[in-house]
Write a structure and sequence with these properties.
globular, disordered C terminus, 6-stranded mixed beta sheet, alpha+beta, about 30% strand
Length: about 200
């Protein structure tokens, strides 16, 4: 995510109108917009696998949305773009601009945004009363970090690795970690910079 300094302070409505005319996506915080840059192919493949696995099982019960769909932390922002979001709230099914009541949010990590996804962005997502689980998925090594909210509002951390099955209680599904990485080419520990996969987000 890169700050866009040349854009004047925008109201939420001005932001929606302005972004609709842009070639790339922008997140919105307190009147400022931030450009969303592209990611690596493994990042894209992992996100697509996740969205496909979820949609196949949930299409009659919940709405699964990809990284083109905004989530509004409140009705007036911030507005952010998760890699995958799932909402089972009927109010979101007819929404036109953003989801407000996701129960599950997934971010595929990249070197440039991992700290943001684990820190500031997770802090924003925790403001969503509807959110039950937040999932971080590695794009250079195979791991999944799941954060689950208890009825008391406390967050529990559950790590998963290759070979494990992830229990997503928010949507009543169990997904094998191996399926998340199916057909994903992950190059690592390669000393040849011409062959190393580099993420730009």
């Amino acid at each position: 995510m890169l700050a866009t300094h040349k854009i004047p302070h925008l109201t939420p409505q001005e932001y929606f109108e302005w972004e609709a005319q842009q070639d790339i996506r922008y997140e919105y915080f307190d009147g400022q917009v931030f450009a969303m840059t592209g990611g690596s192919l493994p990042h894209a493949d992992i996100a697509l696998n996740l969205a496909s696995l979820l949609r196949q099982s949930l299409q009659r019960r919940c709405k699964v949305r990809n990284s083109d769909a905004k989530v509004g932390i409140t009705d007036t922002g911030p507005f952010v773009y998760p890699d995958v979001s799932v909402t089972c709230d009927q109010r979101d099914w007819t929404a036109q601009k953003f989801s407000r009541y996701p129960c599950l949010i997934i971010e595929v990590l990249s070197p440039g945004t991992e700290a943001y996804d684990r820190g500031e962005k997770f802090s924003l997502y925790r403001r969503l009363e509807s959110l039950q689980e937040y999932v971080l998925v590695g794009s250079e090594t195979k791991f999944v970090d799941l954060f689950r909210r208890s009825q008391a509002g406390e967050w529990t951390f559950i790590p998963y690795v290759e070979g494990d099955d992830i229990e997503l209680t928010s949507v009543g599904l169990t997904i094998p970690v191996n399926l998340i990485y199916e057909d994903v080419l992950m190059l690592q520990n390669d000393n040849n910079p011409d062959n190393k996969l580099i993420s730009n987000i």
